[in-house]
Amino acid sequence: MTKRIAFLTASKGIEAVELTDPWDAVTGAGHTAELLSPESGEVQLFNHLDKAETRTVDTTVADASVDDYDALVLPGGVANPDALRMDEKSVAFIKAFVDSGKPVAAICHAPWTLVEAGVLSGKRVTSWPSLQTDIRNAGGDWVDEEVVEDGNLITSRNPDDLPAFSKALLSALG
Fold it and tell me: How far are the Cα atoms of 6, 63, 118 from residue 22, in angstroms, in the given order?
């Protein structure tokens, strides 16, 4: 059965491979991927600090409903999740998605948005190492592992973990 997967990003600062690899895994498995963002238009991907491709936004967060999607993917990059956590509608969407029990996959710096959504209390997660204090302060149990699954949350540390991250995401989709 085809599933519909939301990929939520800000308008810039998205680590390209952290969007494109899981996107390709999802679509390669026959599912539908859709790009959500606070604003319509295009988002700018980056290869670390260098501009990469752009992608067209399919739906704004304001027009999206958790009920329309089977899973949520939160790519990293430093600027991307930092901008998202300042957007109230994005934070509310992330919180509602976690609360729904549907899979939420966040890689690298993306767990910052989970911190902001207040959904990490008692959860075991991983991320880019610089987020560990923020995660612990939010009540999460930060660990240094390739991929961590706790309830409906799937987290990974960095682009090197993408194969395990995508595999866990696909497994959660059934």
Answer: 11, 23, 25
Q: What is the pLDDT of residues 74-97, one digit of tens each?
A: 999 999 999 999 999 999 999 999
Give the range of the structural domain holding residue 62, as residue numbers without chain letter.
4-173
Catalytic: which of 95, 109, 123, 157? 109
Residue 10: give its domain's CATH number.
3.40.50.880
Tell me if the pTM is above 0.85. Answer: yes
Residue 109 falls in the annotated catalytic set: yes
3-state helix, strand, coil in the chain (%, to 5): 40, 30, 30
